[in-house]
């Protein structure tokens, strides 16, 4: 079986990598800081859509700096022990053949599932903290909330989709090397269909060329199909806010695999950044709130109502701006932000887990559900705990985190139930009376 062209013509050096000058510069500075012994980050996270050359860039870096490459696919090793045993061996043992250093590549870390692959992300963080060698992680979509620890532990470097001219240079070089006659129009068509994915474009070129010995525009139109791809959160937002037609905005919210509620959070966070006119902001939030209502109704009544959610959070948000009706309208470029709500959930995860654990322990004793324990019994338990904490600590086997939650709740309940002093009550009453008489006179 002939070697696939995207492997055969994969760049061997960073200089051969097209269209990623900024990423190459950041990556070079990072690896040189490692070689000097003072890296600011022990790992980098290369991220970008499929086919932009994340793995290729890592391999080219290893060749340029004569580093032994230890490569493993993180999503194929799905538990803490697998990742720890394989990667730790690479991180602490010496190199082969007298090579001066080693580069560890963990591919597709976004393929890890927070539940199914429990402990894997913790193992990677542990590996980063202990490693004696530089580590490169790769991901198509690094914005999943479960990957937040990796985003914090590594230097993030974005790889962008290949634009038309760099991709055309790559395809032309392959045609010349393979002595294939290829029409310029055919190359343009393949590039348009590839959506910036170099691997897809090269595979399509090889498929037509090996079948017919040449590539014409007619052959390309008959054989090459548009690449199906999913939009990442930033692409989805840009496609919504920049949409000029109804169908474009709706496609933007349906062509992404982002959870519907998470996409609502992304839009919620970035509407005030994209729209500066307060009436536009109001209309966008009005559409978004209605989208949220229909999403909840769809869950309760039937998924047929989901189309209304798409209509409101896509076109509804996109055309909240009346500026789009003007012929001179130009979309404003905005640097979008990750939802703070998700960040806050990540920061408070340990506290929330401790509260859930505490509620379960109390619920077992009083034979009540978690919700009933939280709403009806927890305030009484906190008051009771002040007097009998030694007994309750032993009986419920409370952890330090659970005790911290009780202390936090105790201070919270005290602030809510604390009665105002007599002087404060009198002052408040007098203020209300004077306000009442002023309004009556006016």
TrEMBL record:
Matching entries from Gene3D superfamilies are given as: 1.10.8.60, P-loop containing nucleotide triphosphate hydrolases
Region (Disordered), start-end ranges? 416-442
Keywords attached to this Swiss-Prot or TrEMBL record, sorted alphabetically, are:
ATP-binding, DNA replication, Nucleotide-binding
Asked if the Swiss-Prot or TrEMBL record annotates the protein with the keyword Kinase, the reply is: no
Q: Which GO terms describe its molecular function?
A: ATP binding; ATP hydrolysis activity; DNA clamp loader activity
Give the compositionally biased regions (Basic and acidic residues): 419-433
Q: Name one Pfam family in it.
A: RCF1-5-like_lid
Ranges for domain AAA+ ATPase come to 40-163
> GO BP, one example?
DNA replication
Q: Which InterPro entries match?
A: AAA+_ATPase, ATPase_AAA_core, P-loop_NTPase, Rep_factor-C_lsu, RFC_lid
The residues the record assigns to binding ATP are 48-55
Domain of life, per the record? Archaea
Enumerate the transmembrane spans: none
Quaternary structure and partners: Heteromultimer composed of small subunits (RfcS) and large subunits (RfcL).
Q: Which family does it belong to?
A: Belongs to the activator 1 small subunits family. RfcL subfamily.
Q: What does this protein do?
A: Part of the RFC clamp loader complex which loads the PCNA sliding clamp onto DNA.
Concerning HAMAP family, the annotation shows: RfcL
Put simply, this protein is called: Replication factor C large subunit
Origin species, per record, is Sulfurisphaera javensis
Phylogenetic classification of the source organism: Archaea, Thermoproteota, Thermoprotei, Sulfolobales, Sulfolobaceae
State the gene name recorded for this protein.
Answer: rfcL
């Amino acid at each position: 079986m002939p070697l696939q062209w995207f492997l055969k013509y994969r760049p061997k050096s960073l200089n051969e990598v097209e269209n990623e000058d900024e990423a190459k510069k950041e990556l070079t500075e990072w690896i040189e800081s490692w070689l000097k012994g003072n890296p600011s980050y022990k790992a980098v996270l290369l991220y970008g859509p499929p086919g932009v050359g994340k793995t290729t860039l890592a391999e080219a870096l290893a060749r340029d700096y004569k580093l032994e490459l230890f490569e493993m696919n993180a999503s194929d090793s799905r538990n803490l022990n697998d990742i720890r045993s394989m990667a730790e061996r690479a991180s602490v043992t010496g190199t082969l053949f007298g090579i001066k250093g080693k580069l560890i590549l963990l591919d597709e870390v976004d393929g890890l599932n927070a539940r199914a692959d429990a402990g894997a992300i913790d193992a990677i963080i542990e590996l980063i903290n202990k490693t004696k060698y530089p580590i490169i992680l790769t991901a198509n979509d690094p914005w999943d909330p479960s990957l937040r620890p990796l985003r914090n532990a590594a230097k993030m470097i974005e790889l962008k989709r290949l634009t038309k001219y760099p991709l055309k240079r790559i395809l032309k070089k392959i045609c010349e090397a393979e002595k294939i006659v290829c029409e310029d129009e055919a190359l343009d068509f393949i590039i348009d269909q590839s959506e910036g994915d170099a691997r897809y474009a090269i595979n399509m070129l090889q498929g037509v060329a090996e079948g017919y010995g040449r590539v014409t525009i007619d052959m390309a139109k008959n054989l090459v199909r548009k690449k199906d791809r999913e939009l990442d959160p930033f692409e989805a937002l840009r496609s919504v806010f920049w949409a000029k037609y109804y169908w474009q905005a709706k496609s933007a919210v349906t062509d992404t695999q982002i959870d519907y509620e998470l996409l609502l959070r992304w839009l919620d966070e970035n509407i005030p950044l994209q729209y500066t006119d307060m009436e536009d902001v109001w209309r966008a939030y009005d559409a978004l709130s209605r989208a949220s209502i229909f999403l909840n109704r769809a869950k309760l009544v039937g998924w047929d109502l989901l189309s209304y959610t798409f209509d409101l959070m896509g076109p509804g948000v996109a055309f909240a701006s009346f500026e789009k009706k003007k012929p001179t309208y130009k979309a404003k470029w905005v640097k979008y932000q990750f939802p703070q709500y998700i960040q806050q959930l990540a920061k408070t995860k340990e506290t929330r887990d401790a509260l859930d654990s505490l509620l379960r322990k109390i619920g077992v004793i009083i034979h009540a559900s978690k919700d009933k324990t939280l709403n009806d019994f927890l305030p009484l338990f906190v008051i009771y705990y002040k007097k009998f904490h030694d007994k309750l600590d032993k009986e419920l086997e409370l952890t330090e985190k659970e005790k911290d939650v009780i202390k936090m709740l105790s201070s919270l309940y005290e602030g809510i139930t604390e009665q105002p002093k007599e002087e404060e009550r009198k002052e408040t009453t007098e203020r209300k009376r004077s306000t009442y008489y002023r309004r009556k006179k006016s």
